Amino acid sequence: MSFSLPDLPYAYDALAPYMSAETLEFHHDKHHQAYVTNGNKLLEGSGLEGKSLEEIVKESYGKNAGLFNNAGQHFNHIHFWKWMKPNGGGKSLPGKLQSAIDSDLGGFDKFRDDFLAAGAGQFGSGWAWLTFKDGKLEVTKTPNGENPLVHGGTPLLGVDVWEHSYYIDYRNARPKYLEAWFDSLVNWDYVAELHEAASK
Ligand SMILES: [Fe+2]
């Protein structure tokens, strides 16, 4: 399958003041578009043309760096837009997800601390994740376009810590971006949906 850029599921200014329209215009229209355009070029002749995006990500990892970087980032960003919503965040999580966070990660506050620390501690570009792996939740981080799919896990929530995600709004203050993102933007219903699908 060839890659195509999905529309944002909300208006460009819908996440302000936590993420500005200018950031979303650059991040979605320029950066994500570039992953789609370059990924499609690199997909041609790769032998993976007929595969799903998830398969392309997993099968190009460690073998075709150019294709992997773009396909990985395409996958990551498709979900990133859906991991946010206007009036998101808060501490009121769907019950099953909350129970799993309590039993696997020591409760919401500990999970929040660990997730933010993973994002702040990722040296250079990358992502912090809530991952479902081997029947339980874990907090992880990855560099560049890498994601939990290539480590045998399912990403349930991921935050983009590339500078293009926060520099216009927060300059170098990555921890401030991470707090605002987690507390005011996360779409917990989408996280719960992915958790439900992964834990069946
Ligand atoms: Fe990004």
TrEMBL record:
Highest taxon above the source species: Bacteria
Keywords (A to Z) from UniProt: Iron, Metal-binding, Oxidoreductase
Pfam families: Sod_Fe_C, Sod_Fe_N
GO molecular function terms attached to this record: metal ion binding; superoxide dismutase activity
InterPro entries per the UniProt record, alphabetical: Mn/Fe_SOD, Mn/Fe_SOD_BS, Mn/Fe_SOD_C, Mn/Fe_SOD_N, Mn/Fe_SOD_N_sf, SOD_C_sf
Reactions catalysed according to its record: 2 superoxide + 2 H(+) = H2O2 + O2
Residue ranges of every copy of the Manganese/iron superoxide dismutase N-terminal domain listed in the record: 2-84
Positions contributing to Mn(2+) binding: 27, 77, 160, 164
Broadest EC class assigned to this enzyme: oxidoreductase
Keyword Iron: yes
Enzyme Commission number, as recorded: 1.15.1.1
Domain annotation Manganese/iron superoxide dismutase C-terminal: ranges: 95-193
Family listed: Belongs to the iron/manganese superoxide dismutase family.
PANTHER family (UniProt xref): SUPEROXIDE DISMUTASE, SUPEROXIDE DISMUTASE [FE] 2, CHLOROPLASTIC
Main function: Destroys radicals which are normally produced within the cells and which are toxic to biological systems.
Protein name (database record): Superoxide dismutase
Originating species: Pelagibacterium luteolum
Lineage of producing organism: Bacteria, Pseudomonadati, Pseudomonadota, Alphaproteobacteria, Hyphomicrobiales
